């Protein structure tokens, strides 16, 4: 993604406080390449002190932002009493924010839903945001759906609860001094542009994975960059040294290639490209030459 856009803020997957504080290998969870900046570390947990400790560790690792995940609806996360279920406990989330803010100098942000079943009114959302704003949160990223905590899978929670963009727009009017980013179901630059007339930023989740080349216009459209964007073929070619590095370090080329399957999304030959990679990347002899071979056929 960083070869496609130099300026878009990237987020890690959620890392739990337990994995960092009780795990044997922090490097596995926290290491990243310097080329990935700017990048935010997304943390999951329900203990203010543990989150504060992990936020400091993340800052020391060089992350540009600490993001608290209060939006994940999975059963595994709920069993640990964190993620979206914490929207029922705004005072606790406010304490989490305040402790993290006291530990780090980089921004502390919160990603959350517009509600959860049982606390899904705008007034509930307004109360939640007012408390974390008072705690000093630097920015909120709002997934414009409620999370249904029982009976839906995480995948279903990304699609079945209806989008309520107007609630996020209303938040911006009510909390005009707070930076508010909208998330959920956004797939095109036309949609991004429309949202940016109402809020401060847009987070792209699933579409960034399914169609990463959507970001090829991000730098010119939103960051006023005059640099020429790389072609898909240039992205693949420039990725070869990194693939070689991963092979030397971890020995699994599919760790990288599985994330490239959407590179030709919507383009002629996209299916053939995906098949080319999937047929080869799990072979024991697979190496960066898979990319070279594909490029030789273009």
UniProtKB/TrEMBL annotation:
Q: Which cofactor does it need?
A: FMN
Q: Which GO terms describe its molecular function?
A: flavin adenine dinucleotide binding; FMN binding; tRNA binding; tRNA-dihydrouridine20 synthase activity; tRNA-dihydrouridine20a synthase activity
Identify the EC number(s): 1.3.1.91
* Entry similarity comment: Belongs to the Dus family. DusA subfamily.
Record function comment: Catalyzes the synthesis of 5,6-dihydrouridine (D), a modified base found in the D-loop of most tRNAs, via the reduction of the C5-C6 double bond in target uridines. Specifically modifies U20 and U20a in tRNAs.
Q: Which NCBIfam families match?
A: PRK11815.1, yjbN
Q: What is this protein called?
A: tRNA-dihydrouridine(20/20a) synthase
The organism encoding this protein is Leptospira terpstrae serovar Hualin str. LT 11-33 = ATCC 700639
Identify the gene encoding this protein. dusA
